[in-house]
Specification:
Largest sheet: 3 strands, parallel
Structural class: mainly alpha
Bound molecules: adenosine-5'-tetraphosphate
Number of domains: 2
Length: 332
């Protein structure tokens, strides 16, 4: 059976982009594949995390997975640090991946910014750990947002180089699953940058924990242009903010951009924003409420993660035995 692996960082401010680009697709895939969904805490610490916040955000993200509809008995739901095989395999991949490959990673350049010399080594090697997350389970498919495409190409390169170097057919060449009309949700304040957890402006994103009033206010304040909405998708060219809001509506309505424009073409943004608020509150409200309920039961959340961790270790153990044997690392 094909196997899915995907992860989300517990770095707080979980937002609509994480939901539409990743988590919602996780839920849809759980009936078709064997799935491992991971709270990637080791990735989160590649930039500074306050320990108390990290613990809170790990539980909150787990609550979001479950509240969005992931079934912990059907899927493995775990946090990355519960399974040491991720870090072990990442070290081996540090010795397989080439510096030149990592130097091309745009996410490192964006996140390290001008202060590159002061970025952590972990942030630089992040894509190797991501490849290890996936390949420790020989996962074949990885549902992600558009921004992770380059890291998945690197994962394919690492698998291929490992297989070639050792003359084996050990690792699969993974397929990204970039699904739906909102694979890259943009900031509500700037249609040219992606909606992001680390954007200092809370108004740039809709958080999964936002209540109806906050959602309404953020959509009302979302940047637009002075023209009414076009009737066809071509009319969104060169209008990134309009395209973003229409894409979000289409994704939340489970429809297509063209259908949304058939309904709202010619409307003013004030009218469209009211409809967008209604659908966002209807879809996200119950998830936020369920997250709050689950967060009141930290022992339950921790038990889901511990159980998932044990199941994950059992899945990766035979893969790691194969890797150690292939590389020539002696195990007692
Ligand atoms: N804006 C987005 N639109 C669609 N999908 C998105 N994802 C992230 N942002 C968007 C997808 O969410 C999953 C988890 O992402 P992550 O936790 O690894 O964080 P990230 O990709 O680095 O992006 P964030 O959430 O905005 O965090 P920061 O601010 O730290 O960069 C991935 O599948 C991702 O594609």
């Amino acid at each position: 059976m094909d196997r899915i692996f995907s992860g989300v960082q517990p770095s707080g401010n979980l937002h609509l982009g994480n939901y539409l680009g990743a988590i919602r697709n996780f839920v849809r895939l759980q009936d078709q594949y064997e799935c491992i969904y991971c709270v990637v805490d080791l990735h989160a610490i590649t930039v500074w995390q306050n320990p108390e916040d990290l613990r809170h955000n790990t539980r909150e993200l787990t609550a979001a997975f479950i509240a969005a509809g992931l079934d912990p008995s059907k899927n493995v739901i775990m946090n990355q640090s519960q399974n040491p095989h991720h870090a072990e395999l990442a070290w081996i991949f540090n010795c397989v991946a080439r510096l030149g490959w990592l130097n091309r990673m745009t996410q490192f350049k964006e996140k390290a910014g001008k202060n590159r010399e002061n970025a952590s080594v972990g942030l630089y090697a992040y894509p190797n750990l991501m490849a290890a997350d996936i390949l420790a389970y020989k996962a074949t498919h990885v549902p992600v947002g558009e921004d992770q495409k380059q890291h998945l190409e690197l994962c394919r390169d690492i698998a291929q180089k490992f297989n070639n170097d050792f003359g084996v057919d050990l690792f699969p060449i993974v397929e990204p699953l970039i699904l739906g009309p909102a694979t890259r949700v943009m900031s509500l304040r700037d249609g040219s940058s992606k909606m992001s957890k680390s954007d200092p402006s809370d108004n740039s994103r809709i958080n999964l924990t936002d209540g109806p009033d906050a959602i309404a206010q953020k959509i009302r304040r979302a940047r637009t242009d002075p023209e009414p909405l076009p009737s066809e998708a071509d009319g969104l060219d060169g209008r990134p903010e309009a395209a973003n809001l229409v894409g979000i509506y289409a994704a939340l309505a489970d429809g297509q951009v063209a259908t949304v424009l058939q309904e709202f073409g010619g409307s003013l943004f004030s009218e469209f924003k009211n409809a967008l608020t209604d659908i966002a509150v209807a879809k996200l409200g119950p998830i936020g409420e369920e997250m709050q309920r689950l967060m009141a039961e930290p022992a339950y959340i921790d038990s889901v993660l511990a159980d998932g961790g044990a199941r994950a270790r059992a899945l990766s153990e035979p893969v790691m035995a194969e890797v150690f044997d292939t590389v020539g690392l002696v195990r007692g």
